[in-house]
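Severity: low
Component: inverse-folding endpoint
Summary: output formatting inconsistent between runs
Steps to reproduce: submit the following structure tokens with default settings.
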């Protein structure tokens, strides 16, 4: 079998350069990378990542924990997990999906955790391996998230610009930083426009918002826009408005938040704040591997910009 030395000889570079191309390609020039990769391909050389991991006392496994109940029909987490798996695979790491009760049954090199609530952080602090959270937090953990504040600020600005008489925020009834940021984006934008705010909160189920708006839509004047903290909530708002005898967008406007399938199956299709969910998953993978490989470095959190997608649920 070809060795690292064989690759170095064929590429006419040092073994150290070949090692750097394999392990830290960002540290070498594009010309050197192409030279070494060409030699590796000619020789059919494949780095022995398992042997390397054993030498470094690593497992090449990252455990992923979802600390809230998963709905198998919800595409959001599936897209996120695909992004994480793709990012880990590029660095020859495997994803292991675990629950909080099974977290210590096998070894790993680090954790990606999502769905945190206030009571979970004491448990997270006790973990002995590097941790990256999916979701902003106030405890100093490295995280990946969308710009939640900016997302609802965009949606609110759009609703104001479209001339809606009243704008109501429909939030998720949970104490979590992401939700507070989304509410704050709405509140500050409304205050800057001199408009009165109103916030409703529900569990993140479309049936709850559907039932509420079916019964109470007459409380809100026509030409009201409902800005929702998830597409799931927005889907229920749309259905409740229709069941109450009104239409979207002729009578009321609805804006969601997520942009992962539900916005497109709604009728009419939802105007929504789109998150780059799969890309966020890849960033989670990149950050945890950086923390594993560089334990003494400060790894900064990432907030990705959102995009307002205009569809048929707003005028």
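Observed output (run 2 of 3):
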């Amino acid at each position: 079998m070809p060795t690292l030395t064989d690759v170095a000889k064929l590429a006419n570079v040092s073994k150290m350069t070949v090692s750097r191309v394999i392990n830290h390609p960002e540290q070498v020039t594009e010309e050197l990378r192409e030279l070494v990769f060409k030699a590796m391909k000619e020789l059919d050389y494949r780095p022995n990542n398992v042997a390397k991991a054993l030498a470094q006392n690593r497992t090449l496994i990252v455990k992923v924990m979802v600390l809230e109940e998963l709905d198998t029909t919800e595409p959001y987490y599936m897209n996120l997990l695909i992004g994480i798996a793709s990012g880990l695979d590029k660095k020859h790491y495997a994803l292991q999906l675990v629950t909080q009760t099974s977290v210590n049954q096998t070894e790993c090199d680090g954790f990606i955790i999502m769905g945190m609530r206030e009571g979970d952080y004491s448990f997270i602090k006790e973990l002995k391996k590097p941790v990256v959270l999916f979701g902003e937090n106030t405890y100093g953990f490295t995280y990946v998230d969308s710009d939640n504040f900016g997302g609802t600020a965009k949606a609110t600005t759009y609703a104001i610009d479209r001339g809606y008489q009243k704008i109501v925020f429909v939030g998720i009834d949970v104490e979590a930083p992401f939700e507070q940021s989304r509410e704050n984006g709405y509140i500050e934008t409304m205050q800057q426009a001199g408009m009165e705010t109103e916030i409703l909160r529900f569990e993140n189920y479309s049936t709850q918002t559907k039932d509420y708006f079916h019964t109470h839509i007459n409380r809100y004047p026509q030409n009201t826009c409902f800005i929702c903290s998830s597409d799931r909530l927005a889907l229920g708002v749309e259905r409740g408005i229709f069941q109450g005898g009104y239409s979207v967008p002729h009578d009321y406007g609805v804006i969601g938040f997520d942009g992962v399938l539900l916005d497109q199956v709604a009728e009419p299709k939802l105007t929504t704040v789109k998150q780059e969910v799969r890309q966020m998953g890849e960033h989670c993978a990149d950050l945890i591997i950086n923390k594993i490989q560089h334990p003494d470095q400060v790894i900064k959190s990432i907030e990705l910009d959102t995009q307002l997608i205009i569809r048929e649920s707003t005028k």
